[in-house]
Amino acid sequence: MSNKENLNLYKKAVNFQKKGDFIQASKIYSDLIKNQFRNEEIFINYAAICQFMNKPNDAILLLKEAIKVNPINPVPFFKMGYILNNNGRFYEALPFAKKAIDLNTNLWQGYHNLVKILINLNRPNEAKLEAINAKKLFSKNHLFDSLLGDIHSYTGDFKEAIKNYKNAFSKSPNDEDTLYTFANFSVGIGNKKESIYFFNKVLKINPLHSLSIYSLSTIIDVEKDEVIKNKINNLNLLDFKSNYDRYTILFSKSHIFHKLKDFDKSSKFLKEGNDLKLKVRPSNIKYLINFSENIKKETSKDSSFDVSKFKNLRDIFIVGLPRSGSTLVESIIGINENVFNLGENSIFLNAFMESKKSNFYEMDEIYSRYAKNFSSKKFTTNKMLSNYMHIPYLLTKLEHSKVIYTFRNPLDNLLSMYRAKFNGSGNEYSSSLIDSANYYIYQFQLMRFYKKKYRENIYFLSYDKLVNYPETEIKKLVTWLGFNWDDSYLYPYKSKQGFFTASNVQVRSPINNKSVGGWEKYSQIMREPLKIFTQNNFSLDSFEKLIN
């Protein structure tokens, strides 16, 4: 095929892509590549389609080819960094982001990507410096003000975060992403009134902004906010283009009917939402169990993992399933003025990866260095729940750590997860009540195994006991941590720290047992997981026996 014919085909593919006909465009791009028509734009455009269609590995391979064709084009380097970062491959993403900037210092997207990668690598100080530098270079670009807001929020400097978010608004008052980010931030710091105002502001700009709709459904008072309630109830799924948006709206409707105490309708929307979500994001239970089992097997063979190296407390890890009371426990501990709450922070995984080359000998030092990027306080809590998989490393390669495992009535826990529309990855199993039941049992048994192995350095904390007998249970926890008692531990909702998880609304209320036994209101959809727990002798009454 002649060069002219290939160019004509390329133009056709570009037109198909512009019209949104990605199948036809992909077919032509694929044919052109087979014809050895090695134009960098073909690889870049085809990669963009693969990225859109959630095929990141294909996109990465295509971008590598684009770089081979033209190694001084910054665009494929930028896109490579962007995709790798979005898929959790932060270390791999960093050199591509830096290279994109080296090749074009006027590429603001490159700086934006670099800052986001540094945030994900838990290097907030470096991220801040890069963002400040980028802000000077691109003074009219509001996104760097917004990123500085994110960084300050991340490190607990809320005054500076607010200042930078407001700078972003002054430059771009109608940017829905920044408005949404600030609305979420307001929820996290306990400013409900302001969060509602900004979520509504987003919806004035984009009435179909599904995440703002969902957020409002979780925080509004249905009796006081009738207008918002009716808007959500009257939403038509067909108005939303993606399945992601549609299941987000189904979850929103479920929340509204839950608040109206119409549990049949709430159940209906909940099931529809989770069924649709599973089509978009299939359950990951097999991956999680295999990953956990591999770590268990690997560390069981090595005697260096047999005994905790505990010296004195510095790092407090909170693990368990989502919605098991972990945020409440974090807020209780965070009342102590010497404690900084890291939240769901990935610094352990970064320390894990970095210390691999020294056979984890330097892990304690590396983890401490990462933690000091956020705070110089004596203690930190880290509630990245998936850290439970790495218990042997937490308790033998870190010398100053203890682990709190939070658990609650299994049916209440499953329902709470089923009702939460998790935005991030890792909790896909929660949309299947069957998978959630099996995963609950697996995790509980695994934690029992580690409890027998590491004994006093793992604390089993029952959410049900905590909310029914708060003073008794909190005193036990505080004693185990070695902290002095203060009555302020009983009022965690007064905490000045931020909470940016699915439980951020509930944690701003006084400790209560309103959610205990809540699964019974949804008994119709809870029948199958109930059977699984019954068959495995899992009930609230049996927990104490199971632990011991």
What does this structure look like?
It is built from 27 helices and 5 strands. 60% of the residues lie in helices and 5% in strands. The protein has a 5-stranded parallel beta sheet, with helices on both faces. By secondary structure, the protein is mainly α. The protein has a domain at 285-513: Rossmann fold (3-Layer(aba) Sandwich). Helix 4 runs antiparallel to helix 5 (74-86) and helix 11 (176-188) packs antiparallel against helix 12 (192-205).
Keywords:
548 residues, mainly alpha, Rossmann fold, 27 helices, 5 strands
Mean pLDDT: 90
Reported by name, the CATH topology of the domain at 285-513 is Rossmann fold
Q: Provide the structure class.
A: mainly alpha
Main beta sheet, described?
A: 5 strands, parallel
Strand portion: under 5%
Overall helicity: 55-70%
- Pick out the low-confidence regions: none
CATH level-1 class of the domain at 285-513: Alpha Beta
Q: Write down the Rg.
A: 25 Å
CATH architecture of the domain at 285-513: 3-Layer(aba) Sandwich
Please tell me what the overall shape is. Answer: globular
User: So how many helices?
Assistant: 27
Q: What's the arrangement of secondary structure elements?
A:
Layout: H1 3-19, H2 22-34, H3 40-52, H4 56-69, H5 74-86, H6 90-103, H7 108-120, H8 124-137, H9 143-154, H10 158-171, H11 176-188, H12 192-205, H13 210-219, H14 226-233, H15 243-259, H16 263-280, H17 285-300, E1 315-320, H18 326-333, E2 339-341, H19 347-355, H20 363-372, E3 379-382, H21 391-396, E4 401-407, H22 410-419, H23 433-454, E5 458-462, H24 463-468, H25 470-481, H26 527-535, H27 543-547
